[in-house]
Amino acid sequence: VQLVESGGGLVQPGGSLTLSCAASGFTFGSYNMRWYRQAPGKERELVAHIARTGASTNYADSVKGRFTISRDDGQNILYLRMTSLLPDDTAVYYCNAPWFGAYGQGTQVTVSS
């Protein structure tokens, strides 16, 4: 199982970013997927979850209405669209395949003016 995140960077408050996670080594479309994040000095936090069919999604209260998780099962890619970004969204964001207990290396998102 390999998960490779990309798309992080520096963005101003109120801005938007889209993170991507390229998955390989397993049948991507058959498994639920998640995004986590970890801010400095804090525990890793579940941000969003998407079912294997993409039919259901769940979000942390802190990002509900601002973030959207989606997947492209043909390309084996997981996405996280982040809008109305806040300084508190600053963290390393990780793609996760919960069935395998696998995480990617993470991508840094910094929200600052």
Describe the structure.
- The protein is mostly beta strands and 113 residues long.
- The chain contains no helices and eleven strands.
- It has strands spanning 2-6, 9-11, 17-24, 33-38, 45-50, 57-59, 67-72, 77-82, 91-97, 102-103, 107-111.
- Strands 2, 4, 5, 6, 9, 10 and 11 form a seven-stranded mixed beta sheet that branches.
- A hairpin with a 6-residue loop joins strand 4 and strand 5.
- The protein is globular and about 40 Å long.
- The termini are far apart.
- The mean pLDDT is 97.
Largest sheet: 7 strands, mixed
Q: Provide the structure class.
A: mainly beta
> Total strand count, please?
11
Distance between the termini: 37 Å
H and E string: EEEEEEEEEEE
Into which percentage range does the β-strand content fall?
over 45%
Question: Are there runs of 5+ residues with pLDDT below 50, and where?
Answer: none
Number of helices: 0
Helix content bin: under 10%
Mean pLDDT: 97
Which geometry do the CA atoms define?
A: globular
What is the CA-based Rg, rounded? Answer: 13 Å
In short, what is this structure?
This protein is mostly beta strands.
Lay out the secondary structure.
Blueprint: E1 2-6, E2 9-11, E3 17-24, E4 33-38, E5 45-50, E6 57-59, E7 67-72, E8 77-82, E9 91-97, E10 102-103, E11 107-111
Parallel strand pairs: 2-11
Antiparallel strand pairs: 1-3, 3-8, 4-5, 4-9, 5-6, 7-8, 9-10, 9-11
Which short descriptors sum up this protein?
113 residues, mainly beta, four-stranded antiparallel β-sheet, globular
